[in-house]
Design brief:
The complex is a heterodimer of chains A (255) and B (383). Chain A has 6 helices and 13 strands. The relative contact order of chain A is 0.17. Helix content of chain B is 51%, strand content 17%. Chain B is built from 12 helices and 10 strands. In chain B, helix 4 packs across helix 7, helix 5 packs antiparallel against helix 6 and helix 5 runs antiparallel to helix 7. Classes of the chains: A alpha/beta (255), B alpha+beta (383).
């Protein structure tokens, strides 16, 4: 079983977000492997341990993302592909195109990814990738079983569970609850630096910067307004509902 | 021209990150409970073993992870920040349990006794202190007498960390006198299931209550002659070197505890409102926190310098004593000031600083008191 895991390095979930020149400031921020991608890596490793095979992690990003790659390798992935090219850091469209070009060069049975990244939370890249590769996908899974080429996954459907079936090759995205990611062991960390890591540019993938240029450009980036003091509504239920509606219409103008 | 470099290697920072996550998720939540119940968290040590942490600085051929002393010191700091008791037991296992076997054992001794410890299948311990001997090893009264192919050991040992849970312990014992009439001290590998070896009692301690500290009795404990570590007169030098290494780990543990105290105090100061402001806005509190932050930074630098020297195979006796002395004293000070910042809340068990202050005191005592560290430094600077 050849398994590919798409990963992303993201801000630490406890990092303080600040803006500078209309962009999120990265200085002094701790970066981590996106927690949803950690579930994807763990699931890949579990399948490899049960059924054998190779686990390759793929990511796009600047030099700093190598730390996230090494974390996945330390957990037990076998090798990694790192697309490091300014022109590849576009929007979801760009990343999906770049990943697809890299993954087409490999043979694969199963592709895993996180359901979303905790930074921008778009949840688009993996499903776009399945589309580009022309394979089925099952998103936000909480359980995965593979028998031969048959795949049965449970997916989180707004609190209910949906059972989906597919045949390999398939792409699945991991939701919280899929598994409990392992800590990389010390031996794993020590071995990680010796595992193969292939660095690629758009040219290596036969892509031009124009062809994968972003389709969406952020117009403005801003922090949410500071939270003011709360207000407890008083009176009986009818009065409180009336007051709440009035507040929503007039003060916060959400209605 | 850029030879001083404060960056950790990628491997070192990954180790720190892994240990920090593990410590925050698996160790810290139990810290109050193991302290309250004086319970040794054996299940934590099983997990530490699986992750390879119990043999962090031991080479892979003996079941270790082959890491360096810097990584080890940082790991101790992270574990100690989460739970002093767990940090102490961890440091004692690696520095004192594995250390003497790793540095002075023969190939056979290492394969047989070190591998289970470094690979995390069992715990190790070191028996030096006695009712009448500690830093003054000359007072050692435990005796080992050669009898054919074995040694017979008699005596007792005090304040021995981990010994109630250890599979193997290295104990020092007098084997005779040298030409000047001074005691010759040897070190012996004693499996704890040997007949005549027993735990007499488990101490009720002020702090670090989740660590296991016991008094041992050795009554006609017979071990094969091949269990002698090095030569019959090597014990003294061996434990000096072992303690030098152990001091790095107690320094690191002190930094971890100090950080825990500081972080708790900083958080509390930013939440506690008095006279219309959080108390973090008051200079009296700010100065305490600024001092803590500075001391922690300096202590860590000294610990890492001593660890670095050890990794470079250079002398580190003076630096490890300085690191341990400074770190332990700023740790006690930070714990004291953290309690002070908490006021009444710091004196009750609702906040961690009460426990940390009790834990911190041992830092100034274990692996040589502050007074002994000053003696070591004084000797090193030529007094």
């Amino acid at each position: 079983m050849n398994i590919i895991v798409c990963i992303k390095q993201t801000f630490d979930t406890e990092a303080k977000i600040s803006l500078e020149n209309g962009a999120v400031k990265e200085d002094g921020v701790q970066f981590i492997l996106n927690p949803y991608d950690e579930y994807a890596v763990e699931e890949a490793l579990k399948i490899k341990e049960e059924q054998g095979g190779e686990v390759t992690v793929v990511t796009v990003g600047p030099a700093r993302v190598e730390e996230a790659i090494r974390t996945a390798l330390a957990m037990g992935a076998d090798e990694a592909i790192h697309i490091e090219d300014e022109a590849a850091y576009g929007d979801e469209y760009t990343i999906a195109e770049v990943l697809a070009a890299a993954i087409r060069q490999k043979s694969y049975d199963l592709i895993l990814a996180g359901n979303q990244a905790v930074d921008d939370g778009s949840g688009q890249v993996a499903v776009r990738l399945a589309q580009l590769l022309d394979i089925a996908h099952i998103s936000t899974i909480t359980k995965l079983e593979i028998h031969g080429t048959q795949v049965v996954a449970e997916r989180d459907a707004e609190g209910d569970t949906e059972i989906a079936e597919a045949s390999l090759p398939v792409l699945v995205t991991a939701q919280q609850g899929l598994n409990e990611p392992r800590y990389p062991s010390l031996i794993g960390i020590r071995k990680a630096s010796k595992k193969p890591l292939t660095k690629l540019t758009l040219a290596d993938l036969g892509l031009s910067a124009d062809a994968v240029g972003r389709k969406v450009t952020p117009v403005e980036v801003f922090l949410p307004a500071a939270k003011g003091a709360g207000r407890i509504l008083e009176g009986d239920t009818a009065m409180r509902v009336q007051e709440l509606v009035r507040e929503l219409r007039q003060t916060s103008k959400v209605l | 021209m850029t030879s001083v470099n404060f960056d950790l290697s990628q491997e070192q920072s990954m180790i720190v990150k892994m240990v920090r996550e593990f410590a925050e998720e698996e160790i810290a939540p139990k810290a109050a409970e193991v302290d309250r119940n004086a319970r040794f968290p054996i299940e934590t040590f099983e997990k530490l073993g699986e992750l390879g942490l119990l043999g962090l600085p031991i080479s892979e051929e003996y079941g270790g992870a082959g890491g360096d002393t810097i990584s080890y010191a940082l790991a101790v700091e992270e574990i100690g920040r989460a739970c002093g008791s767990t940090g102490l037991s961890y440091a004692a296992h690696v520095s004192l349990g594995c250390g003497p076997l790793y540095y002075f054992g023969t190939e056979e001794q290492k394969k047989k006794y070190l591998t289970p410890l470094a690979s995390g299948k069992a715990l190790g311990s070191f028996g030096l202190t006695e009712p009448n001997a500690g830093s003054d090893a000359g007072g050692t009264q435990t005796r080992a007498v050669r009898d054919g192919d074995s040694y017979v050991i008699n005596g007792s040992k005090s304040f021995i960390t981990n010994a109630g849970y250890a599979k193997t312990i290295v104990v020092t014992a007098v084997v005779g006198k040298d030409e000047r009439g001074k005691n010759r001290i040897g070190a012996f590998i004693v499996p704890t299931d040997t007949k005549g070896f027993s735990v007499v009692r488990t101490y009720e301690k002020m702090g670090l209550r989740g660590s296991n500290t016991v008094e041992l009795s050795l009554e006609d404990v017979r071990v094969p002659a091949e269990n002698l570590l090095g030569s019959e007169s090597a014990g003294f030098k061996q434990f000096l070197y072992t303690l030098d290494g152990g001091r790095i780990s107690i320094g690191a543990l002190s930094v971890g505890l100090a950080r825990a105290a500081y972080e708790a105090a900083l958080q509390y100061a930013k939440e506690r409102v008095q006279f219309g402001h959080t108390i973090s806005k008051f200079q009296a509190i700010q100065f305490k926190l600024a001092d803590m932050a500075m001391h922690i930074e300096l202590a860590r630098d000294m610990v890492l310098k001593a660890a670095w020297l050890k990794d470079q195979h250079r002398p580190f006796t003076k630096e490890s004593a300085m690191a341990k002395l400074f770190a332990s004293e700023i740790c006690m000070r930070a714990a004291d000031q953290a309690v002070q910042i908490h006021g009444g809340a710091g004196y009750v068990q609702d906040f961690p600083v009460e426990r940390i202050m009790r834990d911190a005191k041992l830092m100034e005592i274990g692996e040589g008191t502050s007074e002994v560290q000053r003696l070591v430094i004084a000797r090193q600077i030529g007094c």
